[in-house]
Write a structure and sequence with these properties.
single chain; 300 residues; alpha+beta; 434 Repressor (Amino-terminal Domain); Umud Fragment, subunit A; nine-stranded mixed beta sheet; 22% strand
């Protein structure tokens, strides 16, 4: 097959693949300056293109075909599956951030971010690199949306009893709206979370973004946590870290003393010593959410 591509077009293709030009130059055994000079020429030798193809792990079709004919919804849905996959890798502790993922599979953070935001169409080479991070993930599901997220295997099925669900997400900038909308009737942003909970158990769960430093070092600003609304009948038994809606305020605190049954008072503390203690009367409390676990954490 004859490949007709200019140096500038090849440069664009390399960037679309997520590879840095400095990496290509290193693999070709030439300086960055020489590679840039080569990419300014209109007629590239077949030997040079073959070498680049080998580095990118692509065939000739990569230079003459495009995925731009795909429907935007197809691209968007694939991007959502890629983001779900990345969150799964974070959940399993395989990676801590997109930057770490990029370092492990040889792609820039910008490329991965743009892929998740449907700004660029990922190559199958990128998909294969992502799949190497966890062999449980089904390639047909990730690329085409066919079948289940995890491969059908007795051992794998036993290990992956849960599923990924998109839960309402309350970022810091939506905190006031969350406080106002007591019945949560509005449509929220969503955040994918891996869970083994049954559908009826996950109904009152949200993903909540932490702000401020009052819960440091336990919870850093920007950390996303899974919270679950607690029925009023169970308030007197709750312990641990909570999100509490009281007296037109919202706070993230640790329960120091739960005396709601005897005195009707909940004593709350901050993990940061500078936060001190506070008391809240039961009559002031509107809702209490138990913080179940961290679903996405900032690295400090």
């Amino acid at each position: 097959m004859k490949i007709e591509i200019t140096g500038e077009q090849l440069k664009t293709k390399i960037k679309e693949s997520g590879f840095k030009l400095s990496y290509i130059a290193q693999q070709l055994g030439m300086s960055n300056q020489l590679l840039h000079k080569r990419l300014k020429t209109k007629n590239l030798s077949y030997a040079f293109l073959t070498s680049v193809m080998r580095i990118l792990n692509v065939d000739e079709d990569f230079f003459v075909t495009s995925n731009t004919h795909e429907d935007f919804n197809v691209i968007k849905e694939r991007a959502e599956r890629i983001e779900t996959c990345i969150n799964w890798l974070k959940f399993k502790g395989i990676i801590k951030s997109i930057s770490e993922l990029g370092e492990k599979i040889g792609y820039s953070k910008t490329y991965i971010d743009q892929t998740c935001n449907s700004q660029i169409v990922p190559t199958e080479v990128f998909i294969d690199a992502l799949l190497k991070m966890d062999k449980l993930i089904n390639r047909e599901w990730l690329w085409r949306g066919s079948g289940e997220m995890f491969k059908k295997d007795p051992i794998i099925t036993q290990q992956c009893k849960g599923t990924i669900v998109n839960l309402p997400y309350i970022p810091v900038h939506d905190r006031a709206r969350f406080l106002r909308d007591m019945e949560h009737t509005i449509e929220w942003e969503t955040f994918p979370v891996y869970t083994e909970k049954k559908e009826d158990q996950i109904m009152k769960c949200f993903v909540f973004e932490i702000d401020g430093d009052l819960m440091e070092p336990t919870l850093q600003p920007g950390t996303k946590v899974l919270i679950q609304e607690i029925d009023k009948d169970n308030w007197s038994h709750i312990t641990g870290v909570i999100v509490i809606n009281y007296a037109d305020s919202l706070a993230i605190k640790r329960i120091d003393k739960n005396m709601l049954l005897s005195t009707g008072i909940l004593t709350l503390s901050s993990d940061n010593p500078s936060g001190g203690l506070m008391e809240v009367r039961k009559s002031e409390i509107f809702k209490i959410y138990k913080i179940l676990r961290i679903v996405d954490a900032m690295v400090k």
